[in-house]
Every structure is written in C-alpha cells, then in structure tokens.
Amino acid sequence: MHNQGNSSQDTQYDLLVQQRKKCRLCEPDLKNPMTVNPLYDCNEIGAWSQWYGNLNAEIVLIGQDWGSIKYYNENHGKDNPNDRTMLNLIKLFSSIGIKIDKPYSHQNRHLFFTNTVLCLKEGNNMSGPKNQNFAVIAAIGS
User: Fold this and answer.
1) Could you give the number of structural domains in the chain?
2) Average pLDDT over the chain, rounded to whole?
3) Region 38-62: what's the mean pLDDT?
4) Is the pTM of this model over 0.85?
C-alpha cells in the first residue's frame, strides 16, 4: 500500500513491482509468489509492504525472507496477524516507542516493510532458502 509518494516515485515503484512479478532468477529453489498463486500476489514489492508500505517512510524494516509456499497459500498471500514474527515485530517497535498494529489493521504513515528475499521457499517458515545464491531486487529512492 504505497502512499503519499509523488507521481514519479509511484511510477518507479510500480515498475519495480512489475519486474518482481516477472522475475524468475531464484527458481528452481525459490518461487515467485506470482507463479505460486497469482490470485494471492499483491501489487507491492513484497507481502510485508501491504502491512506498511509508505514510500516516504522515516523507518524502513528489511526482513530476511517472507515465508514458505505453504504459509503463503494458507494465508492467501498475507501474514497471519497472530504469527510469532508479527507479534515480535510489534513488541520490538514498541520497545523503541513506535506503536504498530497487527498486519492490515492500520497504516502507520512513517514505515515501510519489505524483505531481501521476495520469493517463497519450500519447507517451513523458519527454514532459510536452500540455495543462498538468491537474487535481490533493490530500489534506491531519490
């Protein structure tokens, strides 16, 4: 949910999202969410950006990876608000005086969340990618 950006910034972000949707560099070890289930794929750089996706954020959180194919399908491409990672992030931000809500319940206008690995992995959510030679899409804002 990118918001409060300027027209050029929004256009660049949308192009980056389209590149992410087309990317297959991580296959076969990792799977692009668009190829797993396009109905659940979002129009953001990654699933966490649906939670907090302000392009003019004062704080950017970059996680390792989002999750597994199984978790993606079970939760329709979104995070379970009661997932341990989500609850830990809420506690972490609270410890530095920033209130964040469970995913998708409220947008904090000062945050942007994403992951370095935007593809999905086999196995469970706690396992890392099988092949550590994964591609990372990065955008540098002006």
Assistant:
1) 1
2) 83
3) 92
4) no
Which domain does 95 fall in, by range? 7-121
Is 74 among the domain residues?
yes
Let me know if residue 42 belongs to a domain.
yes
95 belongs to a structural domain: yes
The pair of three-digit structure tokens given for residue 47, joined into one six-digit string: 């699933």
Residue 131 resides in a domain? no
* Angle at CA of residue 65, ends 63 and 66, nearest 5°: 100
Does residue 116 have a pLDDT over 50? yes
Stretch 98-125: mean pLDDT: 82
- The 3-class secondary structure across 69-133, one letter per residue, is HHHHHHCCCCCCCCCHHHHHHHHHHHHCCCCCCCCCCCCCCCEEEEEEECCEECCCCCCCCCCCC
